[in-house]
Specification:
Blueprint (H helix, E strand, L loop, with lengths): L5 H8 L3 E2 L1 H8 L3 H9 L6 E3 L2 E5 H7 L22
Antiparallel strand pairs: 1-3, 2-3
Helix pairs in contact: 2-3
Length: 84
C-alpha cells in the first residue's frame, strides 16, 4: 500500500498559479480568511489588479504538517488569559 505525499497530491489537484478561491478551497477556509492571512503576511501573494494571485508551491510551503516535534497548543487568538 503506497502513501501519497499530501504536497504532491495538492500539486496534482491545483494549477501553478492560484486565485484566492483556489487557496481557500485548498486550505479549507473562507476567502476572507485567505485575505486576512495575506494582510498579516502569513501567506505570500502577488497583486493582479485588485485581486491576489498565489504560487501554488509557496502556499503549500506555508502549510506545515503537525508532528511530535512542532506540536503545541494553539495560541489564544482572543487575547484572553490561558486557564481562565
Amino acid at each position: 500500500m503506497s502513501t501519497t505525499d499530501p504536497a504532491e497530491e495538492l500539486r496534482r489537484l491545483y494549477p501553478p498559479i492560484l486565485t484566492t478561491a483556489h487557496v481557500a478551497d485548498m486550505m479549507h477556509c473562507t476567502i476572507g480568511d485567505v485575505r486576512d492571512k495575506v494582510h498579516r503576511k502569513e501567506l505570500p501573494a502577488m497583486r493582479w489588479g485588485q485581486q491576489f494571485r498565489f504560487f501554488r508551491d509557496e502556499v503549500i510551503a506555508t502549510m506545515t504538517p503537525v508532528t511530535d516535534d512542532n506540536l503545541e497548543e494553539p495560541s489564544d487568538e482572543t487575547g484572553g488569559e490561558e486557564g481562565s
